[in-house]
Amino acid sequence: MRAPDQAPSSGLSDIAADVLARLRRLHPRVHCLTNAVAQTFTANVLLAVGATPSMTLSAVEVEHFVRGSGALLINLGTLDDERRRSMTLAADAACDADIAWVLDPVKVDRSGFRADFARTMLTKMPRALRLNAGEFEALASAPAGRDAIRLFAETQSLTVAMTAGTDIVSDGRDIVEIGNGDPLMTRVTAMGCAESAVLAACLAVEKNPLNAAAAALLLFNIAGEIAAERARGPGSFAVEILDALYNLDAAALRQRAKVSQ
Known about the structure:
This protein is an alpha/beta fold and 261 residues long. The chain has helices at residues 12-26, 39-49, 62-67, 81-97, 112-122, 133-140, 146-156, 191-205, 209-230, 234-247, 250-256, and strands at residues 29-33, 52-54, 71-75, 101-104, 128-132, 159-163, 167-170, 175-178, 259-260.
């Protein structure tokens, strides 16, 4: 558990700027076991923020890749047999090597089998869980809201980052709400998957999971706002957000941040 003086508050934009600077300086490698439709976009997003992606799914390689990574993302989007086996091996390797990892339990509200697998993965000590309201309710068996998110984070000993109209991040003690973002972010495939990868990248350079998760959501959503101002629709938005992430700076983060506790 982090010390009380480490909690983000109105200074989250400064925390996010510092995390982004470390990403650009250190170029941590993030190993991603992710949705088949998300791999290329996720890799490009990681490169845009300064991280280095790797994506192998091979069960004979994945443990080696994870052990040499700064962080791991496990995304349940296309949950085929090969991915399930590799996800289990990858999570075990991350736990054994004390490497931070993020679980993105995509569509657990649509399949009991998928939800059961996600609950098994939660026992392997992810540092953070990024999901939407429907996915949260399926895993927590409770309506999505501040108190339920805080309680679930506390009982699972992780940081929960729930994305919605207003994003909510909690480590079981503190809560941060982020009001940035743009509706076009819901119109491009793999946007949420890529955001989870950015969260993993932030965990690779920031030991405090609450700071890492809140910073990741803030910088990604502000980049989304900037991209939407330049885009003509979803197609150009997918390109513009890569440029926005690449060019994002501390001034934009401070000027645009909509953060509350």
